[in-house]
Amino acid sequence: SGVLTAIAVSPVVTVNAADGSGANVVSPTTAVTGSTNNFLTFTYTAAAGGMNNGEIRITVPAGWTTPQTTNNTLPGYVTHTTGGISISGNDIVISALTLAASGTLTVRYGDTQSGTQPGAAAAAPGAAETSTFTTQQKSTATSTLTNIATSPTVVVSP
Questions:
Q1: Which of 51-55, 91-95, 113-117, 128-132 has the lowest mean pLDDT?
Q2: CA distance to 16, 67, 123, 157, per residue, from 62 (Å)
Q3: N or C terminus of the chain: which is more exposed, having fewer CB within 10 Å?
């Protein structure tokens, strides 16, 4: 016999989005072969559950300018809106990323729009192709980078 009474603090369980979830789109979706004035904007949107100290990794395909964050006057300059940024080979890595469900991250590759010099733009491959910018995501620092369902593509044509 007795009366049930609520405890002062109830436990909270946070369920983040699954690794490899969310969507990444690119704009524009076309480029001219061998062109050097390319500015691509990637917009990643977190899935239900969001991310807590997670990571997004976008791989720039061979033939495109290697991404870099050290000199805003040189080709392939990259900026972003939130999280920490680093470059690993051809990978643009956004780490320590926390996004709510439907929260967005913007990554600008070849960024000439944020006050940088026109020389910061990226060069496209010299041959016609469909370039896939493979995107991986993990929702927490301790989870596993996993390819998202559909990575963005840019059609390179004459």
A1: 113-117
A2: 33, 11, 11, 16
A3: N
Q: What is the tens place of the pLDDT at every residue in 29-57?
A: 999 999 888 999 999 999 999 999 999 99
Place of tokens 């049930």: 4
Strand order in the sheet with 78-80: 23-27, 40-45, 104-109, 78-80
Q: Which amino acid is at 105?
A: L
More confident residue, 100 or 1: 100
* Residue whose tokens read 């300018």: 65
Q: Is 1 exposed, middle or buried (0-12, 13-18, 19+ CB in 10 A)?
A: exposed
Tokens in use for 59? 């791989």
Residue type, 44: Y
Nearest-angstrom CA–CA distance, 30 and 129: 10
Coil, strand or helix: which one is 126? coil
DSSP character string of 8-35: SS------PPPTT-SEEEEE--EEETT-
Omega within 30 of 0 (cis) for the link into 118: no
Determine the average pLDDT of the residues in 119-129.
87
